[in-house]
Amino acid sequence: MKQVIAGDIGGTNCRLVLARVEAEQVDILYEQHYLARDAAEFETILGRFLDEFDADTGIDAACFAVAGPVRGHRATLTNLPWTLDSNQLQQRFSIGRVHLINDFVANGYSLDVLDRQDCLVLQDGLAASGARALVGAGTGLGMALVADTTAGIQVLASEGGHMDFAPLDDEQADLLRFLRRDTERVSYEHVVSGPGLVRLYRYYAWRNGVDPASLLQSEDAPAEVSRLALMDNDPPAVSALGLFFRIYGSCAANLALVGLATGGVYLAGGIAARLAEALGHSGFLETFNNKPPMSELLEKIPVKVITNPRAGLLGAAWYAGNQ
Fold first, then answer.
1. CATH for the stretch 2-109+310-322
2. pLDDT tens across 219-266, in order?
3. Are the beta carbons of 199 and 179 closer than 8 angstroms?
4. How many Cα atoms occupy the beta-carbon half-sphere of 31 within 13 Å?
5. Looking at domain 115-307, which CATH architecture does it have?
């Protein structure tokens, strides 16, 4: 049994836990959430976290899952001006060993730790062996592929969220032209993310002659767009969320085809978890499956929403305890 620290570090939130890990069992002993904007560097938050409890034994290892690419022992977050260095963290805080992994790699390692009730099934598909794919919208758009090997699962990091956005129809082509007013290159993350949902709202507000200023000033504009859409009393919000789900479905199917993810597609991240029930009644699956000549293959792929908000933390803790 190992005592570890695990972290899930995104562009908005920084979540840390103290956990005990034994094989496939992860027990969280202490958990704390912080706003990333409250600190100039990660070390400040980690130091605060370590000061809040007295571990009865030393920390054997740590794993921090970050929303950005990891190169060697360093990681830079995509949507936050932080750089983490595992060697420096290990020395400064006297931790046995420190690992840095992509946040969606952590979600991938959680798949064999999560229980059945931690996922909501959108499409049953057919149970089959093969790679699994993860995709999830939050502050950004994360992706990863999971492969089964003789040594256990291996999770492959991806920055596929930054692939070029590909319109499927005239409406989406018009959206692309609208978005290119502000940025020359439009990626899927510009659309399928919390900020992306707000961009879609701005697009429909512009088309409908509505001033979006009051919503854009909201403390949590993406959540406000979702709330108004689900209440069905704000036409730009309803249109924005509908298009968001359709583009999300197409993006997820693209990843499933790239990885031939016959083992299943998993939607991770806060947006899918919060809107899991709405996803099941949206145009997500219709767009996911509408990719001839591969529609029959896609219809057989299980599609699930990870509803456990601790998935990334559980995966990071598992990794810290088993590497």
1. 3.30.420.40
2. 899 999 999 999 998 999 999 999 999 999 999 999 999 999 999 999
3. yes
4. 10
5. 3-Layer(aba) Sandwich (3.40)
